[in-house]
Give the backbone structure.
Amino acid sequence: MVNFDFQNPTRVIFGKGTVEKLGPVMKECGGTKVLLHYGGGSIKASGLYDTVKKSLAASGIEIEELGGVVPNPRLSLVQEGIKICRQKEINFILAVGGGSVIDSAKAIGIGVPYSGDVWDFFIDKAVPSKALPVATVLTIPAAGSEVSTGSVITNEDGAFKRSCNSVLMYPAFSILDPELSYTLPPYQTACGIADMLAHVIERYLTQVQNVELTDRLCEAVMKTIINNAPIVMENPTDYAARAEIMWAGALAHNNLLNTGRIGDWASHMIEHELSAINDVAHGAGLAIIIPNLMLHIYKQDPQRFVQFAVRVFGIEENFHDPRQTILRGIEALRSFFTSIGLPATLKEINIGPEYFEKIGEKTKRMNSEKGTVGNSFPLTSKDIVDILKLAK
C-alpha cells in the first residue's frame, strides 16, 4: 500500500424528494446569485426545472441560466458561462443534470477567476488556484462528477478531449435522488452503468501490492453494479435498484477507492480520443475498450486478472490453467456490457482501422512526459493500436 492523503468535502444529500432541500441548503452555503446550468429539454419535460427554480426562488436566490450542455461538453459553452458569471456577478454555479453538465459547471467555476484561457487548465499550462463553488442535482448516475475533483471538456478546435483535476472542483454539495433517474432512456442508463464500472476497474488495475481492503471495496462496488444493472434495465422505476446504482456511481469516483493504490486510467485516455472523433457516449466507448485492453495486458499480472474473474464474476478458478480463468472473466465482462445493450466493437460506432494510428498517437501525447499511457500497465502508441485492432 502506498501513502495517501484523502479528503472529500462534498456534502451528499441522498434520497427521495431531497431536491426540495435545494434552496435552503444553497442559502446556507452562501449562494445568493446562481448560474443554473443544464443540458437540453429533459429537465423541463420532467418538471425538475420548475421544482429547482421554485426551491431557489423561495429562498430568495437570484437565478441566471445557461442551458445547452451536450454529451462530451464543449469548451465554447464553458467560455460563454464564464462570461455570464463575470457580467452578472454570479457567486455559485448549480449543475442540474449528469456528468457532462457537472463537468461543464466545474470548468466554468475554475475559469471565472482566471485571467487566461480556461483551456490552459486542461493542457497542463496552468493550475487552478481559485474557483466559484459548484453544487449539483444529479439526474444521470454515471460519471461520479457529483463527488469528484475532475472535469472533462472537449475543445472543438482540433477535437481534443482533455481532463483537469483539482480539489477546488469538489462540489460544495450534491443532491442525489434516485427517482430523478427513472425517466432515463435505456441506452443512457446502460452507458452510465458502464462509466461507473469503468471507474472502479481503472482503480482495480494496479500493480501496488498489499491493497486487500481497497481490492475488496472495489469488488463490492463492481458486484453491486453488475447485480443491479439488469434490474434497472428491466424495471426503470425500481427504487431500490436505482438507489444502489446511484450510490455505487458516487463511490466509484469519490476517490475513496484510490486510497493506498495507483490506478491505471489507460482505457479512459484511449476512449477520450474515440469520443473526440465521433461523439460516442463515454460509457459505450469504454465498454468496447476495457475488455480488449484487459486481453492485451493480462499477462503482466495474471493473478490480478484471475482474482477479478473469481471474485467479481464468480468464475470457478482453473488452477491448472489460469489463462482459462482470466479469459472467462474478461468474456463475462464483455457479455455483461452487451447484455445491457452496449456495443462490443469499434465497427458498431463507425470507427474503422483508418483512425487507429491517429488515435494511438493522440492518446500517447496526453502523457507525453512519460511517452506511455497508463500508470500501472504502460502502453506505447503501438500497444494502443494493437488494442484497437482487437476491438475492431
Summary: Residues 206 and 262 are 6 Å apart (CA to CA). The chain has two domains: 11-180, 186-391. Residues 186-391 form a domain with the Dehydroquinate synthase-like, alpha domain fold (CATH 1.20.1090.10). Residues 212-234 form the longest helix (23 residues).
